[in-house]
Write a structure and sequence with these properties.
Blueprint: E1 2-4, E2 9-11, H1 22-26, H2 33-39, H3 52-55, H4 66-76, E3 82-86, H5 98-109, E4 129-133, H6 139-166, H7 183-206
């Protein structure tokens, strides 16, 4: 397509587009249903749902304490029908355990555990967080929670890298993260997810998905019940 003026002809391909915002970059690589259909399995569990049991769970998986739960529902994720829990899997010691998965990955990669060092030291920080859904959460709530988990995992990886850089050779390995250690980035995650979510819905709709009507992540049976607190309204200071 060309835009023609009296003396100037400009090809639309030569027009410099403005750089994408961070929100647009986060949702810019959404595949179409046709893209997924070319790769997805039919008779075996689909790849994009293979980690669903890891991404969703109950508060008891990490032995969430009452103060952490109160902070999540009354502060960090106030008003939401989901929250993100951080901590080592205390419920599953085999099978779905993050330790078992990490051990298998290290074995395939030929990495040996250092003598006297717990396997917890090698855990991927992304394995140490998951979503808890409210019993009334709908498809949009589930999709929004998944977006929040992606955002939070990036922040947790960065925090983990910072802590490991600060560690000296004589220090003990840093303990696995807990919810109480991540209060600030949990709050940031909820705010960012709320801002990016409308952009994600528009991009999904543009690519041919129907997010409000169909669950893109399949059925999630793990649910919990808590009283959803109303969002606090910001008080506007009177102009003097």
């Amino acid at each position: 397509m060309k835009f023609i003026d009296d003396n100037v002809s400009i090809d639309s391909a030569d027009v410099v587009k403005p750089p994408k915002t961070k929100k647009e970059q986060l949702v810019s690589n959404v595949p179409t249903p046709e893209d997924i259909a070319e790769q997805e399995k039919i008779f075996m569990p689909p790849d994009h749902l293979a980690r669903r049991a890891i991404a969703f769970g109950s508060p008891g998986r990490t032995a969430l304490d009452p103060d952490e739960l109160k902070m999540l529902v009354n502060d960090a994720f106030r008003g939401e029908k989901y929250f993100i829990v951080v901590g080592k899997d205390e419920k599953n010691t085999r099978g779905l355990s993050a330790r078992v998965r990490q051990w298998r990955r290290m074995r395939r990669a030929g990495i040996n555990v250092e003598k006297g060092v717990s396997l917890d030291y090698y855990l991927d920080p992304q394995e140490q967080c998951y979503i808890v859904l409210h019993e009334s959460a709908n498809n949009l709530d589930i999709l929004k929670s998944a977006l929040a988990l992606v955002i939070f995992r990036r922040k947790l990886v960065a925090l983990d890298a910072t802590m490991r850089q600060q560690k000296t050779s004589g220090d003990d390995p840093p303990p696995p993260f807990r919810t109480r250690d991540c209060q600030e980035i949990l709050r940031e995650t909820r705010i960012e997810a709320s801002k990016v979510f409308p952009h994600l819905l528009r991009e999904l709709t543009k690519k041919g998905w129907r997010p409000p009507l169909r669950s893109l992540l399949g059925r999630v049976s793990a649910r919990a019940d808590w009283k959803i607190q109303p969002v606090r309204e910001k008080k506007h200071q009177p102009v003097s």
